[in-house]
Amino acid sequence: MTPGAEASGSQPGEHAPVTPDWTCGSCGDDWPCATKRHRLLAEYQRDRAALSVYLGSCLAAATRDLRSAPVSSLQDRFIGWVPRSPRTT
Ligand SMILES: [Zn+2]
Q1: Structural domain that includes position 21
Q2: Measured in angstroms, how far is the CA atom of residue 11 from the centroid of ligand 1?
Q3: Distance from the CA of 59 to the center of ligand 1, in angstroms?
Q4: CB-side neighbour CA atoms (13 Å) of 75
Q5: 2 located within any domain
Q6: How far is the CA of 12 from the centre of ligand 1 (A)?
Q7: 14: CA distance to ligand 1 center in Å?
Q8: Does the pLDDT value for residue 7 go beyond 60?
Q9: Domains in the chain: how many in total?
Q10: What pTM was estimated for this model as a whole?
Q11: Residue 23, helix vs strand vs coil
């Protein structure tokens, strides 16, 4: 028998943000969590500019949702983790 890998409706491994708290829907960490960051880098490794645009839009939305959080810490959380230059492997 095969394990039931197909869950209908939700995708547990998606690591999508849950608003307005901006926590990860899969692991509960602050979004973007470590897993999501890794996936974003892989997804946008050839287009860092698009990644910056995407994260910038998330930051803008999170800034509106998380009004009690300092903007500088949100910037650090959403954008500050992105490596400045692409890694060559
Ligand atoms: Zn996660």
Answers
A1: 17-78
A2: 12
A3: 17
A4: 3
A5: no
A6: 9
A7: 8
A8: no
A9: 1
A10: 0.79
A11: strand
